[in-house]
Specification:
Length: 203
């Protein structure tokens, strides 16, 4: 489909983490920089990262700003590829009384064994500071829909950062709590906000 409609379909591919895994035959793996080059050769328009979702970050045991990822971010920055990056989750997922039932089934109720929301932001923003030319679209508004001042500060600090609107049910509630503030934010940063959807139809 991408090959047939290159100007209408945009493909973001995910990296393979076996390169940094143990008990793998590394004769069959590709380094992160090699993967970036291969994905571009295959026609990928960008890369999607899910390693910042708390359960993925816990399972991997690798900080987002770990040296393990340095060559990856350096190559992505060098090649000018955009990232869609899922970092964090809604605040209520760390609160068993506030977390929605639909989040509990997939294992998205987090306790003290998971990285905290704030620690994930710190790790991620250390990457942005180290690689200031990265073009990043943070999925689900970077889970800052209830913290518009912080979202504004992020966009002001990093001119290549964007936010997408794939909801996050909480996003709709948070914007509707203070519609005027949300409207002002959307007007000011309209060129930095990307439309997104994260729902599939139910039949």
């Amino acid at each position: 489909a991408k090959s047939r409609y290159p100007n209408r379909i945009f493909l973001f591919a995910g990296p393979d983490y076996s390169h940094v895994s143990e008990n793998v035959d590394h004769r069959l793996t590709y380094s992160f920089p090699q993967q970036v080059d291969r994905l571009m050769a295959l026609g990928a328009d960008g890369i999607k990262l899910i390693n910042g979702k708390p359960n993925c970050r816990k399972d991997a045991g690798i900080a987002l700003n770990s040296a393990v990822y340095d060559r990856f971010f350096a190559r992505v920055e060098e090649r000018g590829l955009p990232l869609i990056w899922h970092v964090n989750d809604p605040e209520e997922f760390w609160n068993p009384e506030a977390a929605p039932e639909w989040a509990k089934g997939p294992g998205w109720l987090y306790d003290e064994t998971f990285p905290s929301s704030e620690s994930l932001y710190q790790e991620c923003e250390a990457v942005l500071a180290k690689y200031p030319q990265l073009t990043v679209v943070f999925a689900h508004f970077y889970f800052l829909s209830d913290f518009l001042d912080r979202a504004a500060a992020l966009l002001d600090r990093y001119p290549n950062v964007h936010l997408d609107l794939a909801p996050g049910i909480e996003m709709l509630h948070n914007f509707s709590k203070r519609p005027e503030a949300a409207r002002e934010f959307f007007l000011k940063y309209q060129d930095r906000i990307v439309y997104g959807v994260d729902f599939s139809p139910r039949f």
